[in-house]
Amino acid sequence: MTSELTHEQQMIQSMVREFARKVVATTAAERDRTKAFPIENIKQMGELGLMGMMVPLEYEGAGADAVGYVLALTEIAAACASTAVVMSVQNSIVCESLLRYGTEDQKKKYLCPLAGGEIIGAFALTEPHAGSDPVRQTTTAERNGNHYIINGTKRFITSGENCKVAIVTAKTDDGARHKGISAFIVEKGTPGFMVGHTEDKLGLRASDTTDLIFEDCRIPAENILGEEGDGFRIAMSGLDSGRIGIAAQSVGVARAALDAAVRYAREREQFGQSISKFQGLRWIVADMATEIEAARQLTLSAAAMKDRGEPYTAQASMAKLFASEMVNRITGKALQIHGGYGFTKDYPVERYFRDARVFTIYEGTSEIQRIVISNHIFKDKRQLRTG
Ligand code: CAA
After folding, report:
1. Which of 283, 270, 303 minimizes the C-alpha distance to 91?
2. Within 10 Å of residue 354's Cβ, how many Cβ atoms?
3. Active-site amino acid positions
4. Nearest CA to ligand 1 atom 44
5. Three-point CA angle 250, 378, 327, nearest 5°
6. 17 CA distance to ligand 1 middle (Å)
7. For ligand 1, is residue 352 a contact (CB within 6 Å)?
8. What is the pLDDT along the chain (387 residues), one digit of tens a residue?
9. Residue 134: how many CB atoms within 10 A of its CB?
10. Percent helix, percent strand, percent coil in the chain, to nearest 5
11. Ligand 1 mutation target, pool 88, 177, 236, 246, most atoms within 8 A of CB
């Protein structure tokens, strides 16, 4: 596939690979242990143009395409999945929503510092009782003169603690199903906007996941993103791009797990020889490499469709579904190859195993991806060309 990449895409890949290996990977295990947010990495990534990669240069982004973004995110994920999820949310659902729906003033005020990596953004859709079904959210935004007043609680928000600005969805018309949901830009420090409980997670431990609480939080009416009623569409289209990102994260972590398993298999001797000589192990490794390549191609293909301006919702879901399920199989096998050592913190494979677990859950569970894909099959077969 490398030969099919443009010169620019190859440059992005090798630059980010070097940065990820030298800077991000070396501190990943420590971050996993201490849960320290990767602020220094993120700062450097901002300087390298990695926090708003697909945003045009005029808004302080890197002006890269989606394929270049996938390549970069894969490299960061192979080094540290916690750092990768912060990059992924910022690039896709936060920056892209502002780029697509923001006014010129909103772009100057919020998109520029986000894309330049000067500040971190969050997207707040999920609620305690509305995860897979965000239409049932109960957060409200009531118009009051030149303001909206937001009330409600958002849950599982990536970068909730560390963000300076959040895009928050809320009901503006309770009777209008998805058309009653709007999106708002809310700055940290606005009275009535609080960070609640921080989750203590199995994996991605250095990325903060929090509740965001809104109590009579008054924001200027001009901070609505798009029009009233656009919130669900903004979230869904942002998630299309986000799901390619989760697929890229899955490919990165899977590749790191395979590399670790191969390294260990070469060194480990049992029954008088390196365990890498046993056919039983070699066939497992062959299957692992094949699955990773299949997921990588699916992810790059969805990204290329996005770059060509084609509808890519179903392909993003396919890439996310396949890659996230794949990485859970791969990290399990990589851990098994390590035997008892794989179960300890002396080797990175147990971290890969824990980090990968959420990939089949966040930004839409595997079950939700199957709903999206099957809806496209039954509604419009033209979107699912088989070549
Ligand atoms: N792009 C643009 N619009 C879209 C769309 C898309 N991909 N998908 C649906 N829509 C529009 C439809 O066109 C429709 O609009 P109209 O009526 O105007 O035509 C409207 O949205 C409703 O569509 P559906 O009837 O298909 O919606 P639904 O209520 O049946 O839900 C769903 C569909 C696929 C189940 C959706 O609710 C969904 O994706 N759920 C999962 C949510 C999710 O991924 N949550 C994760 C949150 S983020 C996170 O994980 C945390 C983090 O920070 C990392």
Report:
1. 303
2. 17
3. 363
4. 364
5. 10
6. 33
7. no
8. 545 899 999 999 999 999 999 999 999 999 999 999 999 999 999 999 999 999 999 999 999 999 999 999 999 999 999 999 999 999 999 999 999 999 999 999 999 999 999 999 999 999 999 999 999 999 999 999 999 999 999 999 999 999 999 999 999 999 999 999 999 999 999 999 999 999 999 999 999 999 999 999 999 999 999 999 999 999 999 999 999 999 999 999 999 999 999 999 999 999 999 999 999 999 999 999 999 999 999 999 999 999 999 999 999 999 999 999 999 999 999 999 999 999 999 999 999 999 999 999 999 999 999 999 999 999 865 555 554
9. 18
10. 60, 15, 25
11. 236
Take atom 40 of ligand 1 and give the residue whose Cα is closest: 132
CA nearest to 158, candidates 101, 205, 103, 108: 205
Cα distances (Å, whole numbers) of residue 275 to 236, 265, 332, 346: 47, 5, 18, 19
Residues in the chain: 387
**Burial bucket for residue 35 (CB in 10 Å: 0-12, 13-18, 19+):** middle
Helices 349-356 and 81-89: crossing angle in degrees, nearest 10, is 30
- CA distances to 166, 282, 320, 350 from 274, rounded to whole Å, are 52, 11, 36, 22
Instruction: Label the pairing between strands 273-274 and 269-270.
Output: antiparallel
Residue 46 corresponds to which amino acid? G
> Exposed (0-12), middle (13-18) or buried (19+): which is 289, by Cβ within 10 Å?
middle
- Residue 364 near ligand 1, beta carbon < 6 Å: yes
CB 75 within 8 A of CB 157: no
Q: Which amino acid is at 49?
A: G
Gap from CA of 309 to ligand 1 centroid (Å)? 20
| Beta carbon of 135 within 6 Å of any ligand 1 atom | yes
Nearest CA to ligand 1 atom 25: 178
Question: Is ligand 1 within 6 A of the CB of residue 177?
Answer: no
336/349 Cα distance (integer angstroms): 10
**Would you say the pTM of this structure is higher than 0.90?**
yes
